[in-house]
């Protein structure tokens, strides 16, 4: 995974073509890049992001922000009810309760094992 200015690129290798290629994964627009070496790949990734931002500017459009801080999750109505009750028990909104619990899960799952 590569990161530049908040944009993330997923990279793969094409053994037949002997080339690295990738795509920016946190945009709805399709932004791709490729290179034969890691250095070329990094440069192409950064150039692609810069080109995307320049293209948006030239059209007078705001570039898509990688993350807005909002996402919609659809759950079973019973789970929705349970989340609501658990949030109320702690005196939090559903958003705050879900955010806190997601953060805890991520911390638990990303800590190195001993």
Write up what this structure looks like.
The chain has helices at 38-58, 77-90, 94-110; strands at 2-4, 7-14, 19-24, 32-35. It is an alpha+beta fold. The chain has 2 domains: 2-58, no CATH class; 77-110. It has a 4-stranded antiparallel beta sheet, with helices on one face. A hairpin with a 4-residue loop joins strand 2 and strand 3 (19-24). The two termini are 25 Å apart.
Order of helices and strands: EEEEHHH
Count of strand segments: 4
Overall average residue pLDDT: 92
Poorly predicted segments? none
Task: Give the overall form.
Answer: elongated
How would you write the strand order of the largest sheet? 1-2-3-4
Helix percentage? 40-55%
What's the tally of helices? Answer: 3
How big is the Rg?
A: 20 Å
Count of structural domains: 2
- Main beta sheet strand tally, sense and closure: 4 strands, antiparallel
Relative strand content: 15-25%
Features:
114 residues, 4-stranded antiparallel sheet, 4 strands, alpha+beta, 18% strand
Quick recap:
By secondary structure, the protein is an alpha+beta fold.
Topology:
Layout: E1 2-4, E2 7-14, E3 19-24, E4 32-35, H1 38-58, H2 77-90, H3 94-110
Antiparallel strand pairs: 1-2, 2-3, 3-4
Helix pairs in contact: 2-3
